[in-house]
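Milestone 3.1: sequence recovery, worked example.
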């Protein structure tokens, strides 16, 4: 008999869990049911087409994929292959690759506005080719640090009319070339081993001894340099502090190949401890690192809460370890590109879906060792003989057939049709119900997979938190970052507005700090 698995929630993580458990190679080992509040799947990645507004795409927020999203692309490649007729020929065709990124705001030349072009790199995310190891990325970071310091020296030399400074900076450029030549033949492992040896022999104070000295001398020489030079110096300053921290013998993060050991530090405090200057810590670049991944407590820039090891890993992957381009922007809403194909493949595999079911309570057994009951609220009744809601609709747009999630329920499937006023079945604050339903361990399910956001667990998992200290710690420790999104539709293209290709914007003005077409 197949093991009955109950999946609570229908966001990307929950659906991928169902996808893996329903793999044909498992030969029907699991009988899977997904429980979803409201009429559509996708969680934060849900989107709809609005027939009343020319079928425009409407979604919960801005979504991009990064060029290091190896697992996301690889998994959706499998979904598209299993689907047979996906929205685009391949998952990579479903995205616009983007290398043009702007940090900050204001006109060109504003010190708070950084243009951050990223060069194309070999491969494409999820293509099965090897991904760079932390050792390779750290070796690359060291070489890039030298290149950035040299570029700052070159631009400062070209910008100054002071002959003495020109000569001094030219001498630094020559020293950088000599240092770069000395390490040019080293493998990444050999270079990292040499850096680690320097760190141990010098108590960690000068893990990148020569580069740090060159950097300090450039700083002294370029006072009053143009904004681009200062931006290069801030990047170099942050890179130097990261390297000093990675090779600090107190933690031995690189020596032991263990970045997790750094997660006990807050990232900006860790950078400061390793010599990062205040102006670098307050730079647009650092704000962009935090805001791209929601790492300010409550969204407050005065409360950074990024674990250092995680931050370093994300920065190395984002800026140095991507494949193809640094960013990939979706051609349609994620509900169409990702969630609808996942749903259709899962349906073909026999996965069952219980739409319009809101989880009220997850309750443990007397010993607190397993989930014993799940109490659900039924938000609507379906018109007999229908037993399962059909959520998708189709339309032809631009000569292409689009399968989409409607902006509201398909009322022709629901008892009573569209009520007045219309409930918001997806809202936390809407308690509309026609009844309750209790699922019991052993009778209705054997295992439960929880795909509900932490913010909702404080209420629905309260009985678990009372029984298990680990659950209580989870709920008390993990805090949400509330965010606000706005979509703007224009009859003027971004190219006509002067953006060609259109960029992605990060660290912009509050509250809409991240933007993309």
């Amino acid at each position: 008999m197949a093991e009955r698995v109950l999946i609570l929630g229908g966001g990307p993580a929950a659906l991928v869990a169902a996808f893996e458990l329903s793999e044909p190679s498992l030969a029907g080992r699991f009988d899977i049911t997904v429980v979803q509040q409201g009429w559509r799947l996708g969680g934060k990645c849900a989107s709809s087409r609005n027939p009343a507004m020319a079928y425009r795409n409407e979604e919960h927020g801005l979504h991009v994929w990064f060029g290091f999203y190896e697992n996301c692309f690889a998994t959706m490649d499998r979904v598209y292959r299993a689907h047979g007729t996906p929205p685009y020929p391949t998952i990579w065709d479903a995205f616009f690759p983007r290398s043009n990124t702007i940090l900050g705001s204001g006109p060109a030349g504003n010190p708070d506005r950084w243009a951050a072009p990223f060069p194309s790199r070999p491969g494409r995310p999820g293509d099965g080719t090897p991904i760079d190891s932390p050792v390779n990325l750290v070796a690359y970071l060291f070489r890039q640090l030298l290149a950035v310091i040299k570029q700052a020296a070159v631009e400062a030399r070209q910008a100054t009319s002071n002959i003495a400074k020109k000569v001094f900076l030219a001498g630094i450029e020559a020293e950088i070339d000599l240092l770069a030549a000395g390490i040019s033949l080293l493998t990444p492992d050999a270079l990292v081993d040499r850096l680690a040896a320097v760190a141990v022999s010098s108590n960690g104070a000068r893990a990148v001894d020569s580069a740090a000295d060159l950097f300090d001398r450039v700083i002294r020489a370029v006072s009053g340099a143009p904004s681009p030079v200062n931006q290069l110096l801030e990047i170099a300053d942050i890179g130097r502090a990261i390297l000093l921290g990675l090779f600090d013998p107190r933690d031995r993060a690189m020596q032991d190949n263990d970045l997790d050991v750094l997660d006990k530090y807050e990232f900006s405090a860790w950078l400061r401890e390793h010599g990062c200057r205040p102006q670098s810590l307050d730079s647009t670049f650092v704000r962009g690192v935090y805001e791209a991944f929601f790492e300010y407590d409550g969204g407050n820039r005065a409360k950074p809460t990024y674990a250092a090891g995680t931050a370093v890993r994300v920065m190395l992957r984002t800026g140095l370890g991507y494949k193809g381009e640094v960013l990939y922007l979706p051609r349609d809403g994620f509900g169409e590109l990702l969630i609808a194909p996942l749903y259709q493949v899962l349906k073909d595999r026999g996965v069952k879906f219980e739409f319009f079911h809101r989880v009220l309570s997850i309750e443990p057994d007397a010993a607190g060792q397993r989930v014993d009951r799940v109490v659900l609220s039924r938000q609507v009744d379906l018109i007999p003989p229908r037993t399962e809601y059909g959520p998708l609709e189709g339309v032809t747009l631009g000569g292409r057939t689009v399968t989409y999630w409607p902006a509201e329920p398909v009322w022709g499937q629901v008892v009573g049709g569209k009520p007045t006023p219309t409930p918001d079945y997806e809202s936390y604050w809407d308690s509309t119900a026609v009844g309750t339903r209790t699922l019991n361990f052993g009778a209705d399910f054997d295992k439960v997979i929880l795909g509900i956001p932490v913010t909702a667990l404080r209420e629905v998992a309260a009985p678990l938190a009372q029984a298990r200290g680990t659950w209580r710690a989870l709920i008390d420790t993990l805090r949400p970052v509330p965010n606000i999104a706005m979509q703007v539709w224009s009859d003027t293209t971004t190219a006509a507005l002067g953006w060609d290709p259109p960029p992605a914007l990060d660290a912009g003005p509050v509250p809409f700090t991240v933007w993309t077409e």
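The CA atoms of residues 495 and 501 lie 7 Å apart. Confidence is low (pLDDT under 50) at residues 200-207.
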